[in-house]
Amino acid sequence: MGSLGGPDRERRWRGIDSLDARSRPPRSLLVALVLASVTLITLDVSGGQSSPLEPARRAVGEAFGPAQSAAATAVRPFTSVPAWFRSKGDLAEEVRDLEAANADLREQVQTAGVDRNRLQQYDELTSAAEDLGHALVPARVVALGSRQSQSFTVTIDAGSDAGLGPDMTVVNNDGLVGRILRVTRTTATVLLITDPESTVGGRVGSSSEVGFVTGSGSLDEDAGLDLRLLDGTVVPARDDAVVTWGSENGPYERGVPIGRITEVYSSVREASQRAVVAPYVDFSSLDVVGVMVPSGTTSDRAVIEADGSLR
């Protein structure tokens, strides 16, 4: 074993050493390169802007600058993707916040207008209570009756807890609205005078003639109400005011304004007069109403007395 590998092994190692010696640069060359580098660095630092290396540096920059710029431009979209997603998400959140703030502002503006109008109607109910000489329980219309039932009703947000009951007269600051049909503890259903099943005893202002006012089955102001006087020979005058006839047994209190006469039709065959009455109340925008109650009625809300005071 030793005789087989000895001489050959020595020859191989000598060959490798000789190759390494030929491939390594001379020691003197390395020393010269190091000294040259140190000299160039010293000249560059001490020379500042007038450094002898400045022309070479400028030439290198001009040669490789465009390539660096192009590479940076090509890479920039990829390096900016995370920041783009972050900024897009932040902008989307800001837009949502701004939209929510704008919606709140619009709602406040709209609500302010509604509240201002409603406050004015409450103030006008005070004047109505004084004119009618009757206490009023204020309420708001919260729902319209179903058209499928073919009845013209509204629901108000006051009921038996507020001292209300069936057949009480309902008004607003303009005139007669209707009468209460039924109540719960907190709500009441009001039959409007525009309902075709509604009949109100009415009195014509100038002649004091009495008759019956019935609903037309429409909320359109042009539809009007139908007035027929008990005395068929009497011709009511246009623009005459019509107020409730009223009785002690109800369901309508006396002297509540209903509307004014706009048209008069005579029937020779029936020897009667028919008049169209335009209601004072705008039923298409009904909101705040007052229910006429006896003075001293116990209620869960403020009551407007006949003298305009609140109780």
Structure description:
The protein is of the alpha+beta class and about 300 residues long. It has two domains: about 1-80, no CATH class; about 115-295, Rod shape-determining protein MreC, domain 1 (Thrombin, subunit H, Beta Barrel), CATH 2.40.10. Helix content is about 40%, strand content about 25%. The chain has four helices and twelve strands. The chain has helices at about 1-25, 25-45, 55-80, 80-130; strands at about 135-145, 155, 170, 175-185, 190, 200-205, 210-215, 225-230, 240-245, 255-265, 270-280, 290-295. The strands form two sheets. Strands 1-2-5-4-3-12 form a six-stranded antiparallel β-barrel. A six-stranded antiparallel β-barrel has the order 6-7-8-11-10-9. Strand 4 and strand 5 (about 190) form a beta hairpin.
Q: How many distinct folded domains?
A: 2
Write the CATH fold name of the largest domain.
Thrombin, subunit H
Mean pLDDT metric: 78
Tally of alpha and pi helices: 4
Fraction in beta strands:
15-25%
Describe the biggest sheet? 6 strands, antiparallel, barrel
The radius of gyration over CA amounts to 50 Å
Tell me the distance between the termini: 129 Å
Per CATH, the class of the largest domain reads: Mainly Beta
**SSE-based structural type:** alpha+beta
The CATH homologous superfamily of the largest domain is named Rod shape-determining protein MreC, domain 1
How many strand units?
12
Share of helical residues: 25-40%
Low-confidence stretches: none
> What CATH architecture of the largest domain do you see?
Beta Barrel
Molecular shape: elongated
